[in-house]
Amino acid sequence: MSHTHPLLPLHMPLGSYKRQVAERVGAFPSMVPCWFLLAMLAPLVLALEQSPGMVIKEGQSVNLECSKKKTSNRAMYWFVLPSQKNSSLTQLVNAFEGAKPEVEKGFESHFKSSKIIGDSITLSIEHAFLNDSGTYYCAESDHS
After folding, report:
1. pLDDT tens-place string over residues 22-71
2. What's the predicted TM-score (pTM) here?
3. Distances 14 to 9, 20, 58, 114, 121 between C-alpha atoms, Å
4. Is residue 83 in a domain?
5. What is one cellular component GO term in this UniProt entry (predicted)?
């Protein structure tokens, strides 16, 4: 008997989503959403670049890459908007140049982040769960 790993479908209302995120996270001038069907990415803002689209199965691990384009901003962040109904944008990671990144409480078990290396940061999701599905955003800021 074989065990199948479920995949989640995800809808992509791109037109209004960028505006909604800007309204929710006004303190972060450059933010890139990436659709995550357990990791399906789609960059929308030119100040940041993210990994190309991908799909993974439950239990697999994935690295989400984000690079800023030659800005002087010293902080980078990861957020998630879970795909579950009535979810809200949640900060996962904050990282400042030269410091160890901080993973928010409740996410430390299987979310990890690299330090900012050059102009890049990586979010690792180890052994993804179905409830990890959502839209993942990378953001940068000059706040320290």
Report:
1. 334 444 445 545 444 443 333 333 467 766 666 778 999 999 999 887 66
2. 0.67
3. 16, 10, 25, 28, 24
4. yes
5. plasma membrane
